[in-house]
Design goal:
alpha+beta; four-stranded mixed β-sheet; five-stranded mixed β-sheet
Length: 151
C-alpha cells in the first residue's frame, strides 16, 4: 500500500549554482525560496558517504503551483565530479518539462540565456491526448529541458 506523500523538490547539481539559478529565474520565472544554503559537517559526510563535502545553493519555486508548490533545488558540491553529457535516452533523470504558451519564443529565450538545442521543434498528434508542440533544449550546463504546448 502506498505511503501518503507530497512531492517536495527535484535536485539539480550545478557547476555554477548561482548562474544556473539565474537562468531558471530569468527564463521560466522561478522564484527564489530563502535562505541560500551553505552546508557542511559530519552529518552531511555521513548522509552522502563523501568525506569533507560542502554544498551551496538555493531552492527555486517552480512556476504554476503557488506558494506551496514544489521547488527546484540547485546545489553546487565541493568536491564535485564530472558527469557524462546528458542524452535523451540515458537511464535515470531525463529532463525537466515546462508547459508554455509560445514554444518558439521560450526556445529563443533559452538560446539567448546561454542554453542550447537538442533537436528540432516538432508538432504531432498523440492519440487520445491531443496535439503537442515541443522541443528538447539544454540549460547552460547541458541539462535537458522539454518545452511543450498542448492543444
Amino acid at each position: 500500500m502506498p505511503h501518503p506523500a507530497r512531492f517536495a523538490h527535484v535536485n539539480l547539481v550545478a557547476r555554477d549554482w548561482q548562474a544556473l539559478a539565474r537562468f531558471y529565474t530569468d527564463v521560466f520565472g522561478c522564484d527564489p525560496v530563502p535562505p541560500e544554503r551553505d552546508q557542511a559537517g559530519p552529518w552531511l559526510d555521513a548522509a552522502t558517504s563523501i568525506p569533507d563535502l560542502r554544498i551551496r545553493g538555493m531552492h527555486l519555486r517552480l512556476p504554476g503551483h503557488g506558494a506551496d508548490g514544489p521547488t527546484l533545488e540547485i546545489y553546487g558540491y565541493d568536491p564535485s565530479e564530472e558527469a557524462p553529457h546528458p542524452t535523451c535516452n540515458r537511464p535515470g533523470f531525463g529532463h525537466l518539462a515546462f508547459a508554455v504558451d509560445d514554444v518558439d519564443q521560450v526556445c529563443a529565450d533559452i538560446l539567448h540565456a546561454g542554453g542550447g538545442r537538442v533537436g528540432d521543434t516538432v508538432a504531432t498528434d498523440i492519440p487520445d491526448a491531443g496535439r503537442i508542440q515541443f522541443a528538447y533544449m539544454r540549460d547552460p550546463e547541458g541539462n535537458i529541458l522539454e518545452i511543450q504546448k498542448w492543444s
